[in-house]
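Students often ask what a holo structure prediction actually looks like on paper. The answer is less mysterious than it sounds. You provide the chain, you provide the ligand, and the output is a string of discrete structure tokens encoding the 3D arrangement of the protein together with nicotinamide-adenine-dinucleotide.
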Amino acid sequence: MRRNISESTVRRLSFYLRILEKVEAVGIDTLSSEKLAQRTGTTAAQVRKDLSLFGSFGKRGLGYAIPQLASELREILGLDRTWRVALVGGGRIGSALFEYSGFRKRGFEIVAVLDADSSKVGQRWGKVVLSDIADLEKVLTAESVDIVILTIPAESVPDVLDRVVAVGVRGILNYAPVQLRVPGDVTVKDVNMVLELEALSFALSQTKGE
Amino acid sequence: MRRNISESTVRRLSFYLRILEKVEAVGIDTLSSEKLAQRTGTTAAQVRKDLSLFGSFGKRGLGYAIPQLASELREILGLDRTWRVALVGGGRIGSALFEYSGFRKRGFEIVAVLDADSSKVGQRWGKVVLSDIADLEKVLTAESVDIVILTIPAESVPDVLDRVVAVGVRGILNYAPVQLRVPGDVTVKDVNMVLELEALSFALSQTKGE
DNA sequence: TCCATTTTGTGAACTAATTCACAAGGGTCT
DNA sequence: AGACCCTTGTGAATTAGTTCACAAAATGGA
Ligand SMILES: NC(=O)c1ccc[n+]([C@@H]2O[C@H](COP(=O)([O-])OP(=O)(O)OC[C@H]3O[C@@H](n4cnc5c(N)ncnc54)[C@H](O)[C@@H]3O)[C@@H](O)[C@H]2O)c1
Ligand SMILES: NC(=O)c1ccc[n+]([C@@H]2O[C@H](COP(=O)([O-])OP(=O)(O)OC[C@H]3O[C@@H](n4cnc5c(N)ncnc54)[C@H](O)[C@@H]3O)[C@@H](O)[C@H]2O)c1
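The corresponding structure tokens follow.
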């Protein structure tokens, strides 16, 4: 049933879920594709098409039952479980991410932090004690890590990446501005803030000349 | 010449530029679409198609002259100038961004930081003194701000956003997990880290069941 | 029960993006 | 100069993604 799901569909599913959870808290129990579309900045047809890729979750004439659809979406997105996450790089961006509660709320639990700086190794951050990057393999295995977040300088990435992949981690979120090369069964997502600014720069430059 | 440039084309142009600058430093002075494609994870045809949307920058049989193409790309992307950026929200993620040198290197200069916390207002961060969010309009105007980065809690966003737009800023980079509603001449880019993790979660859940 | 109304689910039509494939241009070697 | 590579630039073909449009439920009121 689930072949060829596009990146944009997945992104929209996350949006739908976020809105459903927001609306559920208000006490509404049903929502039409039209309403969901308005709230997420897309069209009703798109909402229905996206959902229909995974099944039939609505009632004709009525719309979608919010708790049921939310639960379906959580299952589709794999959010009906906790993901064990390791943070590699406890610098500025790494520590901001560590303290952010939004990840845990969605089921992403940071169970290990690794760094190369010996003055950081051994520090206690909440429940986590910072590990030495030399112990990467040991820590990722011991903590059954599913996902690694890379917040280290670009030049350190290739080496660390190879080790992370070698130990069997198949999901990576990368903050360094480098193109990652990984085997086909490993998924990488990039967060590239400079790229977003450059896209803004492009958009602003375009309209200016009109 | 420049109508209907897709989001993905713009993203790739940024990648091309990054690689060109990296390769230029090594002393190579020409690069084929094939090589550029390999380094950026796309195809040679895609590289040529992307570039051809803006002009003819290559030499047949030889490839692209690196400094010239880099310069063309900088102009296309609007990176042949400095952009004046204001940071709204000097919290965890905001301060990490402020200290990050990667923005300035690309011509994005943070000329103002605004916060609502009176214990932060008046603090000096490098060359910048933190302003009170109450003075938003005054500061954005006085500093000729082109782009605003929002690193404030989601619930504060709508109000601040309206004020930012009203004062004439037309580029916004948003870190809060909310859908922004803006007039058509304003461009918004979102950095949504939870969304990326959810996309990873989806990808990992898919392959697991095979 | 029947009719009016609402909204889903989904093929078909359309639009956008990518890949193919090749003629034309440019360089080099003899 | 001519033969031989190499690589661009770009229409055409293909593939992917979105929007349209409507029959098929489901509900509620007369
Ligand atoms: N700070 C930002 O706002 C920002 C924005 C965009 C991108 N980034 C990217 O994020 C990454 C981290 O940036 P930052 O500002 O947090 O840098 P930082 O210097 O504050 O932190 C990097 C951390 O990584 C550690 N480290 C270095 N090499 C390591 C290795 N081999 N193994 C383990 N740990 C290692 C360092 O000890 C340090 O603690 C960089 O690639 C940067 O380009 C940062
Ligand atoms: N920290 C992260 O890693 C992270 C990750 C993803 C998304 N985000 C998002 O980024 C935003 C900021 O997160 P954070 O972790 O830096 O939070 P934070 O609480 O550390 O910082 C928020 C800052 O905004 C200021 N602020 C609050 N209301 C304001 C207003 N109306 N005007 C001006 N300033 C105001 C606060 O005083 C504070 O300094 C949030 O929307 C969060 O969801 C953060």
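The pocket of nicotinamide-adenine-dinucleotide (ligand 1) is lined by residues A 88-94, 114-117, 120, 133, 151-154, 156, 160, 175-177, 193; B 96-97, 100, 102 (CB under 6 Å).
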